[in-house]
Amino acid sequence: MASPSSAPPRVLTIAGSDSGGGAGIQADLKTMLALGTHGMSVIVAVTAQNSVGVQGYWELPVEAVVAQYRSVVDDIGVQAVKTGMLASAELVEAVASLLAESTERVPVVVDPVGVSKHGDTLLAQSAVSVLRDRLLPQATLATPNLHEVAQLTGVEVTREAELSDAAKAVQDLGPEWVLIKGGHLEGDAVDLLRGPDGAERLFRAPRYDNRHTHGTGCTLASAIASHLALGLDVPDAVAASKEYITGAIAAGFPLGSGIGPVDHAWRWRTA
């Protein structure tokens, strides 16, 4: 009988479920597996979702979210945490409180999900201030897109030169590091990373002629959390994750009649 092998690094995602399998918890767990970590989940909401949009979502009770978190953390433990769709002020507050009570500080990647790829609202307006005041200050890294930057700070970005101001505005809310995702700008896909010392680094990738990009934000944040659990520092984790998501976008495939997902298994298919 073979002896048991050691467990891979453990990463916890706290987010919503995507019934279509392209984003949310499903994308997070696929990413974690693809990158060699053990993914675990705390589901905060369930969506009815497919390639054309979100038909509805239902929040789980706060006690169910707390019970899932305690069940995983108290027994298995985690080496990195990623948060995604948190839906309501009550759920954001509950997650922020759980992270604040943690006795062992691990990297926390906060993807402040506010709007879906199809433009569907996934964060109640009443939750924005709670996310801003309670959750972002606990983030090792925050990964907002341009719509979420505007939602959180009021800063509108229309060109690459404005990414720096956006990163500073988000960092002023408390996260140690900030990655502004500039995917909605024209030209190359450009993201800007700002560190605790104010130093900035641009990550530039080609823009592929492929509309099947569902789950991009969830996948990138989960990849960063996975690389942090694997021992990389933040800049190297972001660089490795950008390489992974760029390949996943290039390999994105059609599914249903709308926008298909990125391909989380692209490395396996091209090996």
From TrEMBL:
InterPro entries: HMP/HMP-P_kinase_dom, PM/HMP-P_kinase-1, Ribokinase-like
Listed GO biological process terms: thiamine biosynthetic process
Pfam families named in the record: Phos_pyr_kin
Domain Pyridoxamine kinase/Phosphomethylpyrimidine kinase: 18-263
Pathway connected to this protein: Cofactor biosynthesis; thiamine diphosphate biosynthesis; 4-amino-2-methyl-5-diphosphomethylpyrimidine from 5-amino-1-(5-phospho-D-ribosyl)imidazole: step 3/3
GO cellular component, one term: cytosol
Domain of life: Bacteria
Catalytic activity reported: 4-amino-2-methyl-5-(phosphooxymethyl)pyrimidine + ATP = 4-amino-2-methyl-5-(diphosphooxymethyl)pyrimidine + ADP; 4-amino-5-hydroxymethyl-2-methylpyrimidine + ATP = 4-amino-2-methyl-5-(phosphooxymethyl)pyrimidine + ADP + H(+)
Annotated SUPFAM superfamilies: Ribokinase-like
Keywords: ATP-binding, Kinase, Nucleotide-binding, Thiamine biosynthesis, Transferase
UniProt-listed Enzyme Commission number(s): 2.7.1.49, 2.7.4.7
Recorded GO MF terms: ATP binding; hydroxymethylpyrimidine kinase activity; phosphomethylpyrimidine kinase activity
Annotated signal sequence range: none
PANTHER family linked: HYDROXYMETHYLPYRIMIDINE_PHOSPHOMETHYLPYRIMIDINE KINASE THI20-RELATED, PHOSPHOMETHYLPYRIMIDINE KINASE
Function: Catalyzes the phosphorylation of hydroxymethylpyrimidine phosphate (HMP-P) to HMP-PP, and of HMP to HMP-P.
Protein's name according to its UniProt entry: Bifunctional hydroxymethylpyrimidine kinase/phosphomethylpyrimidine kinase
Provenance organism: Streptacidiphilus fuscans
